[in-house]
């Protein structure tokens, strides 16, 4: 089941002071970015955050799940998704720990 735009918009509205938050459609689901750095996924109207050590400490009692079959486990955020301050802080501390994306290679012209 693909995620709906209302849920994506809700998640984006919840996050504040964590950089420029955007969503990009990917295979019927969404990648969630902060200043161009991917930090999570929205799949089946559920929010998944990439696991980091600081995120694990912040959450405490974590729930991990694969966002799609064959994926590595992410942090599944359900209970506190409506807690704007908590969610924003989780994203801020997680993004700090994630690597900077590698520059994309230019396509060769033939």
UniProtKB/TrEMBL annotation:
Annotated InterPro entries: TfoX_N
Source domain of life: Bacteria
Matching SUPFAM superfamilies: YgaC/TfoX-N like (SSF159894)
Residue intervals of the TfoX N-terminal domain: 13-96
The protein, known as: Transcriptional regulator of competence genes, TfoX/Sxy family
Organism: Pedobacter caeni
